[in-house]
Amino acid sequence: MMFKLLRALKIARVALRYGLDEIILSASSAPLLLKILSGLLFWRDLRAPRGERLRRALEELGPIFVKFGQLLSTRRDLLALDIADELARLQDRVPPFSSDLAVAEITRALGRHPDELFASFSREPVASASVAQVHFAVLKNGKEVAVKVLRPGVHRAIKKDIALLRVVATLIERLWIDGPRLKPREVVSEFEKYLHDELDLMREAANASQLRRNFADSSLLLMPEMMWDYCSSSVIVMERMHGIPISQTARLIAEGVDLKKLSRDGVEIFFTQVFRDGFFHADMHPGNIMVSTDAASFGRYIALDFGIVGTLTDFDKDYLAQNFLAFFQRDYKRVAQAHIESGWAPKDTRVDELEAAVRACCEPIFDRPLSQISFGQVLLRLFQTSRRFNIEVQPQLVLLQKTLLNIEGLGRELDPDLDLWQTAKPFLENWMREQLGWRGLLARLKTEAPHYAQLLPQLPRLLHRVLSVHSIQQHDYDGMLSQILAEQRKTNKFIARIIYFSGGLIAGILLVQLFYQFQDAFY
Predict the structure, then answer these.
(1) Cβ atoms of 184 and 171 closer than 8 Å
(2) CA nearest neighbour of 71 among 398, 416, 387, 423
(3) Is 283 part of the annotated catalytic residue set?
């Protein structure tokens, strides 16, 4: 408990040192006590710009706060430009740690000094983020690689911050009327899980490998290849990728990259990851994305930093797709029904009332470019709506919500006139057709075929069990005869249906297997 108190005191001390209270005081609703306290601290040197002071405060407070600043930097519709520009520096320009520490960690993790492992190794880091930094190197076979090294002591720092967040979450849940509905402790637990996953670099390497395999035939996205012989939980080595950071739009235009196409491709990549794969890159801020300018892959996205990925179940994907399509078609009644059917809204919620509330939130944003839409205001109104109808926050979708904010920020930078709805709608409609049409049926039959192949030999035993269950002991009472005969007729019909169904099922499975055998032979 003591270290939690000390951490809370440090946060307060850092906030006061960098004058963060001044940013809060810019709101007219700031408490009077805070204004008095700020006046007593007249001796502070606050000549540095407010954005720089905020960035330095977040850097001093550690990785969790740096990640919070990274997310804020993508929301230029909610922040003043000077603050957003300064926070953007957190994406890949966090102060680096000592190169000697990096060399020592590589030696410990991989068993040999970098001078022995590589033909050349750059001691100067090329990028430094909240949990790791990157150095360039060249393997002895001449292949250019990037070496990612975990920050020393980062596990301990995150453990302390998570402990403090748990205390804050508990207070919110107990003291705020909306606390239980927002499930703050579950959200913190989900955040902790993904943070700890990000600290295991072997898991990151595996995530990158999975995403690379998912997009192996894609003309939209590139991922680096992992050098598995040089990977551990604290050091990973991957193919070096060459491109222009996506935030440098002037360079992209000079190279001839079509920014409008790039923005549309980004939307397609996101929806492909979410709905086709159920496995998506969940840290898509500008510091993790480049654009290729090589002739063979010109204009493709290059994804980096795979520490945080999200996964969705088939239920989540189906629910989200139905909601997206209903939104795109302005079918607010279907949106309301989906929330109630899924259990997100109470069963006694009136569909017409929820429908009217969702319409009021969403109708004003359709047919308008991103430059004219404040998603911050839309989210605020949706939050007010959810509070009114007691709609629960779903912790498993926190990462998806965060990624949607990143996508919006990128789209706004590349093409302020991007029509997000019209770009995404055809993709979702095609996905729904594939899921509900004959292609989806064949795919599911192919998946289930091994299960049914194992079940078919058991049918005689199952039929015998059915006969045993439905057989009736002969009785001496004449009055029971008609009942016995009626039950026997029902049993015979039941058995006949099972036989017909089994025969049809066997024929269907054989046809599907033959179809795929002929398809494989043909192609």
Answers:
(1) no
(2) 398
(3) yes
Asked if residue 193 lies in contact with residue 396, where contact means CB atoms within 8 angstroms, the answer is: no
Query: What is the rounded distance in angstroms from the CA atom of residue 143 to the CA atom of residue 121?
Result: 12
What is the distance of C-alpha 214 from the center of its chain? 16
* Catalytic-labelled residue, pool 92, 265, 283, 305: 283
Q: How far is it, in rounded angstroms, from Cα 383 to Cα 114?
A: 51
pTM, two decimal places: 0.69
How far is it, in rounded angstroms, from Cα 20 to Cα 18? 6
Bridge partners (DSSP) of residue 239 are 145
Taking Cα atoms as reference points, which of 410, 441, 118 lies closest to residue 269? Answer: 410
* Ordered DSSP codes for 359-396: HHHHGGGTT--GGG--HHHHHHHHHHHHHHTTPPP-GG
- Judged against a pLDDT cut of 50, whether residue 470 lies above it is answered with yes
Q: Are 347 and 340 in contact (CB under 8 A)?
A: yes
**Could you report the per-residue pLDDT of 21-34, keeping only the tens digit for each?**
666 555 444 455 55
Q: Do 315 and 471 form a contact (C-beta atoms < 8 A)?
A: no
Please give the torsion angle defined by the CA atoms of residues 478, 483, 489 and 492, in that order, rounded to the nearest 10 degrees.
-90
Question: pLDDT by residue (tens digit) across 377-431?
Answer: 565 566 566 667 777 656 556 667 667 777 777 777 888 877 766 777 787 777 7
Distance CA 53, CA 48 (A): 7
Please, which residues have CB within 8 angstroms of residue 322's CB and are 6 or more apart in sequence?
334, 338
Sign of the alpha-carbon torsion through 54, 59, 60, 66: positive
Find the radius of gyration of the CA atoms of the chain.
29
Across the range 81-103, mean pLDDT stands at: 81
